[in-house]
Amino acid sequence: MNMMLQKAWQEFLYPMLQRPKALQLAALCHRGHGDAREYLLITSRETKRWIIPKGWPIRGLKSNETALQEAWEEAGVREGKVSAQPIGSYTYQKRQDTGWAYPIETLVYAVAVTDMAQTYPEKAERTRTWVTAEAAADMVDEEELQLIFASQKEFAGVPIRD
């Protein structure tokens, strides 16, 4: 029993405690203005939950460029104007195949979408939909991401700065 506990500490618990907080970059894609503003949600590949496009940092790209690249790969955003700075952040628990989970800090960049592709790299693995900020807040699971949608000035009929 003692050997099993020691092995669990060395192989699982200690490495998890020593890890720096993991970072992902996300795109809050939107189109339209005023009451017609919509937000893009996609399904995750495995659980089919509604999420926004996100991924790990890409060497050679700035954080906002990475968010735009993820929007292309996961949702088919061909062109868009991406914010220089994050508009917010949220955390979620990333599940591993082993069953363990660890927290991911996700920086969110606004992307004003100007062109969408019908075919894109992960089209066969995901579903995409355009919804209001209010509907998006109801559809996503992560509380902090719900707050990002709920905080959009769209609820007051004021367009978000693109």
Task: Describe the structure in brief.
The chain has 162 residues and is α+β, with helices and mostly antiparallel strands. Helix content is 28%, strand content 33%.
Overview of this structure, please?
The chain has helices at residues 2-18, 63-75, 133-139, 143-150; strands at residues 22-31, 38-43, 50-51, 54-55, 77-82, 88-95, 101-116, 128-131. It has 162 residues and is α+β, with helices and mostly antiparallel strands. It has one domain (19-156): Nucleoside Triphosphate Pyrophosphohydrolase (Alpha-Beta Complex). Strands 1, 2, 3, 4, 5, 6, 7 and 8 form an 8-stranded mixed sheet that branches. Strand 1 (22-31) and strand 2 form a beta hairpin. The radius of gyration is 18 Å and the shape is elongated.
